[in-house]
Amino acid sequence: MKRDTKTKKKPMETSVKILTGVQEKPYYIQNDFALYQADCLNLLKQLPENSVDMIFADPPYNLSNGGFSVHAGRMVSVNKGDWDKSKGFEDDYDFHFNWLKACQRVLKPNGTLWVSGTYHSIYQCGHALQSLGYHILNDVSWFKPNASPNLSCRFFTASHETLIWARKDKKAKHTFNYDLMKNGNWPEDPLKKPNLQMRSVWSMGTPKPAEKKFGKHPTQKPIDLLKRIVLASTNEGDVVLDPFTGSSTTGIVASVFNRKFIGIDLEEKYLKLSIKRKQEMDKIMDIKNPSPTAKPRLGSEFKIINKIQITQKELF
Fold first, then answer.
1. Is residue 4 situated within a structural domain?
2. Is 187 exposed, middle or buried (0-12, 13-18, 19+ CB in 10 A)?
3. Which of 50, 78, 198, 269 counts the highest number of beta carbons within 10 A?
4. What is the pTM of this model?
């Protein structure tokens, strides 16, 4: 399998120092942004215990069942790939239990994990989280105003996903940037009222066309969603990991806001897509090493990150 070697560095050359013991060669690495083409269980085994500040995971929903949906006015298959096909309840549950257990090992005691899903998977993830001893902090409903219509007209139109936010250690003090969530500027969400506590129902659309400039992942999350998650539960310099990185929206946002990022995925085409998005972001930031005061040029997908409101301070 041919890879682009021009962008690669040895693991010890990155400032994400927890990668120094990883035997797997990175698919792509630049400064504090690293991508691996690997099974997340195998890669997570190679990371040090208690080394990651926050994990965002959007695991397979196991809903590729031959059904149909609507996209842009056209009927389309819901099948996303073999990786999204159910293997039966017990095997699906074991899969979720195992990756959540692996994530638990690498999380710091005060670290937190976000997992996104629909009813096809989120209840299994919730049960596994509790079985493993995670402490659930919130379940967030992400309401999609522009969700696809229901073709059968036999039940309610699915227009939300559930996000579970959990802490590794019940007694630890986790990061929650309360003031930023309450008083920040969040124009993408009509439900968020100025200077009032942020609630657990978030209204945001699906990814905008500019976010799919280089292609798209079938379960791609919008920048607006990951911006809120990253800013709510991490601080500058923290290590953010996504075990099912896809097109790396998590990593793009983490990088813009000066977090370190590790992304893992089995599909090379999505890693290539991630690299294109990262390189585009670097051009817009107009620097090789993002700094806390850096501002992007207006244009491309980073218009979406509140235009020039790029640092936490400017979100107030």
1. no
2. exposed
3. 198
4. 0.83
Tens digits of residue pLDDT in 9-59 = 434 344 568 999 999 999 999 989 999 999 999 999 999 999 999 999 999
pLDDT over 90, % of the chain: 65
**88 Ramachandran zone, left/alpha/beta (phi>0; psi -120 to 50):** left
Residue 6 lies in a domain: no
Tell me if 224 is assigned to some domain.
Answer: yes
Q: Report whether pLDDT(91) > 60.
A: yes
- Per cent of the chain over pLDDT 70 is 77
* Helix residue ranges, H only, 199-310: 223-233, 249-256, 268-285
Strand ranges for 183-251 from DSSP E: 201-203, 239-242
Q: Which domain holds residue 120?
A: 11-315
Mean local confidence (pLDDT), 155-171: 94
Q: Are 231 and 180 in contact (CB under 8 A)?
A: yes
Q: Residue 134 maps to which CATH number?
A: 3.40.50.150
Q: Taking a C-beta distance cutoff of 8 angstroms, is the pair 114, 54 a contact?
A: yes
Contact 203, 143 (CB under 8 A): yes
In a domain, 2, yes or no: no
Instruction: Tell me how far apart the alpha carbons of residues 153 and 177 are, in angstroms, rounded to a whole number.
Output: 42
Which of 131-135, 141-145, 207-211 comes out lowest in average pLDDT?
Answer: 207-211
Q: Which amino acid is at 127?
A: H
Of the pLDDT bands very low, low, confident and very high (cuts 50, 70, 90), residue 133 is very high
Beta bridge partners of 233: none
Distance of CA 47 to the CA centre of its chain: 19
Decide if pLDDT at 237 tops 50.
yes
pLDDT at 62: 65
